[in-house]
Design goal:
8 helices; alpha+beta; elongated; 26% helix
């Protein structure tokens, strides 16, 4: 087995092994009462720690009393969640990348210990056991209706693919670098959202402001703001309608049909559904001009978008047309 993309110098095929052949499982805490938790000289790795982190966050362990009957965890162990309310969270894994003194595993997870730990890189394992390919296998194994569980035996009977240790280390470093870059971008995005919120709070005055002026504004503008109802700003408005879904001839034509799921960006260029001319004529749906603002009235209430071209919309929208694009863009930002 070969990956489609790999580092230069690596041309050996990847090994495929069943988990039960290269490692052994062990259970989490057992025989404990609620009063046993929250105090003591020992620690245990929580369910949420495994659920939320590909690599165990050692700062997020909880206290428990020392119990020599329980399994101690050690560096290189891989932990799997056993039970969850959704199948997507069953069988999620996390790797312990450091040694912890007197530390156990929670009772809603099980541990997996590789026989030849020197053959594996912890960073690589943390991503490999959460790869889309392996996660699909866990999803299939999840059993239940209102709550989903996974069999430890079934997990151990699954296969995992891996290259030699030197290639594992290279892959692990690359993915760690990518995750670091994504974290920095996410932090930057959060800061920009805070700045945007601050500007909206201070650059747009409230109706109750005594002099009706914003706290922050461009230097060349000093006049008071006007106050008006939204209906006094836009040109025309209309709602929409949905043709009967029982009549297939009403759909699949050349008329874009806007639904809530299409509101993902400022400008709406494409819709998932389309109407035929017959569908438009046999419903309360109307053609809304390009450049209009469509505002969701149901489900994702208040979510808005600007139509890049003429479209029909469902009754879930309130559509507004404007004579002035700058005025329209200001209303979009304000909303």
């Amino acid at each position: 087995m070969y990956p489609k993309v790999r580092f230069r110098g690596f041309d050996e095929s990847w090994r495929t092994e069943k988990l039960k052949n290269i490692g052994e499982s062990f259970s989490g805490l057992s025989g404990k009462k609620s009063s046993d938790f929250g105090h003591g000289e020992a620690k245990y790795i929580t369910y949420l720690n495994i659920l939320n982190n590909p690599i165990i966050d050692t700062k997020l362990t909880d206290k428990i009393e020392i119990d020599n009957k329980q399994h101690l965890v050690k560096k290189g162990d891989i932990f799997f969640t056993i039970s969850s309310e959704t199948p997507q969270e069953v069988g999620l894994s996390s790797v312990l990348d450091t040694n912890l003194n007197e530390c156990y595993l929670n009772s809603f997870s099980f541990g997996y210990r590789l026989k030849e730990i020197s053959m594996f890189d912890n960073l690589f394992n943390s991503y490999n056991f959460r790869s889309p390919n392996f996660r699909r296998k866990m999803y299939i194994l999840a059993q239940g209706i209102s709550r989903y569980n996974i069999s430890k035996k079934a997990v151990l009977n699954e296969t995992i693919c891996f290259p030699k240790i030197s290639e594992q280390k290279q892959i692990g470093k690359l993915i760690k670098l990518m995750n670091s870059l994504l974290s920095l971008q996410q932090r930057k995005l959060e800061l920009e959202k805070q700045l945007k919120f601050f500007l909206f709070q201070n650059a747009i005055p409230s109706k109750e402001a005594v002099i009706f002026k914003p706290k922050i504004r461009f230097r060349e503008f000093q006049d008071k703001w006007k106050y008006a109802k939204l209906s006094e700003i836009y040109n025309t408005d209309c709602s929409g309608g949905t043709p009967s879904v029982k009549n297939k001839t009403f759909y699949g034509g050349n008329i874009p049909f806007l639904t809530i799921s299409d509101l993902n960006n400022k400008k709406i260029y494409k819709t998932q559904k389309t109407l035929s001319k017959k569908g438009l004529e046999n419903s309360s749906a109307k053609l809304v001009p390009a450049g209009s603002i469509s505002l969701a009235m149901y489900a994702s209430v208040g979510k808005i978008g600007i139509l890049s071209k003429e479209m029909a919309t469902s009754q879930a929208f309130f559509n507004m047309t404007f004579d002035d694009d700058e005025k329209r863009d200001f209303i979009y930002a304000w909303c």
